[in-house]
Specification:
Distance between the termini: 77 Å
Number of helices: 9
Strand content: under 5%
Number of domains: 2
CATH superfamily of the largest domain: Death Domain, Fas
Number of strands: 0
Length: 163
Amino acid sequence: MAAPWSCSDGYHVQLQRDSQFLCSDQRMHTELVDKLVLQLNRTYPQILTDKEAQRVSSLFRNLSVPTVVRLAELLVHLQGKGEVACHEFYRGLQIHAYNVYFNLPTRVSRRREPADPMGTNTVACRMERYVLNDRGKSNITLVLTITNDLTGYKLTVPSECKC
């Protein structure tokens, strides 16, 4: 098992650790992989040149080749390109599939509490994600009621404009 992610690790090391997860995740479907390839080719042609994109696209367009193989080929290619290419892959993943990006093993290990080096207390992390407003429904109702009342008051007060 790989050691937990540390701040000294670069995107290249992160991608090596996340590769198995990415290749096994069902959310990494053909359409998403195509979007990532297109973004890397169009936005960062120095990372994925037209010639490389055509070679990779022909591999990606071949429906007899499983998506896992196509994705693995892309990840190996990006790791060979270096740190910047790996970083841009993560940016594309965050844009096109935030739910996958958020659940990457290197991201999960960074979210764990420092007092829990083994990562056994993930309940606190999950609860933190779902707490949007700790004041409850009554606070939202109060704010909406006040807003509605002020809007109604503004509509009923005659304006002093004599147009």
